[in-house]
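Priority: medium. Attachment 1 of 2:
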C-alpha cells in the first residue's frame, strides 16, 4: 500500500503564532515581517507583527502595524485590546493630535466584548492614569462583577485607593486580590505596605504577613540556592550586600535605614546597590554606612 502523504506545512501565519507563543520573538519577526511587508493589506499579518514588536519593547512601531490592521479590517475586540496596551506603553492614554489613545482603544474593545472583564479592567487602569477616579471605580467594579476571581481588578482598585490616600480601603482590596490569586506577588507586597500604614497593625501582625510572603515567594529560591563556600570563621569581617529601589526619601528607608546604619564597621563591610531612579536623592548617612561600596 502507498504510504500516507505527509500533512501540508503550516502557513506562515501559523508558524508566526507558534513562534510568538513560544516566546521565540526573533523567529516570529523573521517569519512575519516579510509577509506583512509583501502584503500590507493583510490585517492578520500586520496585527501579528505588531504583537511581536510590542513583546520586544518596540511599542511605537507595533502601534503603526496594529493601527494598519484595524484600518484594513475591523477585527475582533482582542485587536483593540492589544492596541490599547501598546498605547499605554508609550503613555498615549487619551486621544490627541497623534490620533487615538488607550481610552478609545479599550472602549472599542468593551463595545465589541461587553461581557469580557479584561478590556473593562484595562479601561479602568487608563482612567486611573488620567485621574478620572469615578470612571475608574465604575470600570473596575464592572470587571470584577463579570468575573469575581479577576484578581487584577481588585489589585488596581487597591492601587487607586492607595493613590487617593484611602489606605484602609486599599488594604481591603489588596487582601481580596491575594485571596483570588495567591501567586500575585505585587498584590501581596502592596498589602504589606498598606497594612504598615494602619494604626491597628502591630509588630507581630506585620512580621506574620512578611513570613507569609516569604513562604509563598522566597523560601523555594532559598532552598534551591547553592551552598556558600566562603570562610565561616566567626571572627572574620562579614560582607553584607543590600539591593533595592528604596534607598532614598521613601517610607521603607525609614524602616530599614537605621538597621544598615547600625552595622559596626569593624565587624561588617556593607555594600549597597540602589535601583532607584537616577534622579533620586540618597541620604548621605546611608552612603556613609556603605563601607564597601554604594552603587
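Attachment 2 of 2:
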Amino acid at each position: 500500500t502507498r504510504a500516507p502523504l505527509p500533512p501540508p506545512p503550516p502557513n506562515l501565519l501559523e508558524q508566526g503564532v507558534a513562534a510568538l507563543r513560544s516566546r521565540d520573538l526573533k523567529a516570529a519577526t523573521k517569519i512575519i515581517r516579510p509577509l506583512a511587508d509583501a502584503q500590507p493589506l493583510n490585517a492578520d499579518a500586520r496585527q501579528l507583527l505588531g504583537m511581536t514588536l510590542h513583546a520586544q519593547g518596540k511599542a511605537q512601531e507595533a502601534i503603526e502595524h496594529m493601527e494598519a490592521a484595524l484600518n484594513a479590517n475591523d477585527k475582533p475586540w482582542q485587536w483593540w485590546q492589544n492596541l490599547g496596551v501598546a498605547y499605554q506603553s508609550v503613555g498615549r492614554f487619551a486621544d490627541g493630535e497623534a490620533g487615538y489613545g488607550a481610552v478609545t482603544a479599550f472602549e472599542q474593545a468593551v463595545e465589541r466584548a461587553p461581557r469580557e472583564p479584561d478590556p473593562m479592567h484595562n479601561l479602568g487602569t487608563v482612567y486611573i492614569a488620567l485621574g478620572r477616579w469615578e470612571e475608574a471605580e465604575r470600570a473596575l467594579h464592572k470587571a470584577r462583577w463579570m468575573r469575581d476571581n479577576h484578581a487584577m481588578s481588585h489589585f488596581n482598585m487597591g492601587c487607586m485607593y492607595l493613590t487617593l490616600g484611602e489606605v484602609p480601603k486599599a488594604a481591603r482590596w489588596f487582601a481580596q486580590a491575594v485571596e483570588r490569586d495567591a501567586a500575585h506577588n505585587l498584590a501581596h507586597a502592596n498589602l504589606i505596605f498598606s497594612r504598615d500604614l494602619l494604626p491597628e497593625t502591630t509588630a507581630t501582625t506585620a512580621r506574620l504577613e512578611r513570613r507569609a510572603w516569604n513562604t509563598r515567594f522566597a523560601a523555594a529560591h532559598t532552598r534551591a540556592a547553592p551552598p556558600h563556600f566562603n570562610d565561616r570563621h566567626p571572627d572574620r569581617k562579614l560582607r553584607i550586600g543590600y539591593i533595592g529601589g528604596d534607598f532614598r526619601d521613601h517610607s521603607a528607608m525609614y524602616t530599614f535605614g537605621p538597621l544598615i546604619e547600625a552595622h559596626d564597621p569593624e565587624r561588617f563591610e556593607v555594600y549597597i546597590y540602589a535601583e532607584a531612579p537616577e534622579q533620586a536623592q540618597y541620604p548621605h548617612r546611608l552612603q556613609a554606612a556603605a563601607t564597601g561600596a554604594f552603587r
